[in-house]
Amino acid sequence: MINQLKDSFKKFENQLNGEGKSSWHQLRKEALDTFTQKGFPKAKDEEYRYTPIGRKIEKALDFTQINPIAADHMHGDKQLFHDADAIHIFINNNALLNEKLNNLGNDEIDVLSLKDASEKYADDMTAHFGNFADINKDAFAALNTAFSFEGVFIKVKKNAVIKKPIILHYGSDDNAASNFYQTRNLIVVEPGAQVNIIESYTSDYSEAQYSNHVSEIVVESNAHLNYFKFQNQKGEKYHIDNSYISQARDSVVKTYTFTLEGKIIRNNLNFALELSLIHI
């Protein structure tokens, strides 16, 4: 497995077109080294003692097929809430539909890929990306960081009140190029802002499929976030979900998770409370 992962990572590096010296890529390499040393969680690891998903993944996957730079896209018209009056973001078969992001930015909110955010919002990326998802504490966070590429960056600007919910649609079907996904978000809610964010997961993949998701969310002072997850993944779907939420003074965060289908779904919700007067 380790040699296969290293081979996949090398192929990934060769597609980065000169980004190999960036601080983001240095973090990727550090995360890969951490994961290759520790591997997937074992039965002796307390937090995953009753979720033996690591052994299943290690036995079932061809790790030479991991490629975060996805090429295949599908339209999200079969996904939950696709016709809701909302701000829609589609991530299908591990590919972000960038063309649908072009009209989402305005004076109150900006939505773009992590790759584009590393240029437009370099300070936010440096301050927050990988700062909360601890690669030394969770093997799945380390693996996700190692192969992070085309995730979603959302910035809700100071004092903005976003009336429509933001829905991130994660979908997959039999056109997928791989059966193991690494998806990633970084969300920054600036002081005084208010927003509702929904992560919706659906799958029509007929065989065993594995997804490994990380969301890092920064909620600044006096900001309000309602954060929903709807997980309706049919069949042999294995999903690991790590959410890391950092809250500043006088912020309010309410989280809701609805798991409807899936073979094994593991949700880890992590809070970092910066100051007093925090509401969860």
Please provide a brief summary of the model.
This protein is an alpha/beta fold and 280 residues long. The protein contains six helices and twelve strands. The model has no long low-confidence stretch (mean pLDDT 85).
Characterization of this structure:
21% of the residues lie in helices and 35% in strands. By secondary structure, it is α/β, with parallel strands linked by helices. Strands 2-1-5-7-9-11 form a six-stranded mixed beta sheet, with no helix packed on it. A six-stranded mixed beta sheet has the order 3-4-6-8-10-12. Helix 4 (114-120) crosses helix 5. It is globular and about 50 Å long. The termini are far apart. The model has no long low-confidence stretch (mean pLDDT 85).
* Arithmetic mean of pLDDT: 85
Biggest beta-sheet profile: 6 strands, mixed
* Sequence stretches where pLDDT stays below 50 over 5 or more residues: none
| Helix fraction by DSSP (H/I, runs of at least 4) | 10-25%
C-alpha Rg (nearest Å) = 18 Å
Residue fraction in strands: 25-35%
| Tally of individual helices | 6
Q: What are the secondary-structure elements, in order, as H or E?
A: HHHEEEHHHEEEEEEEEE
Q: How many angstroms does the end-to-end distance come to? A: 40 Å
Tell me how many strands there are. Answer: 12
Q: What's the arrangement of strands in the largest beta sheet?
A: 2-1-5-7-9-11
General form: globular
Structural class: alpha/beta
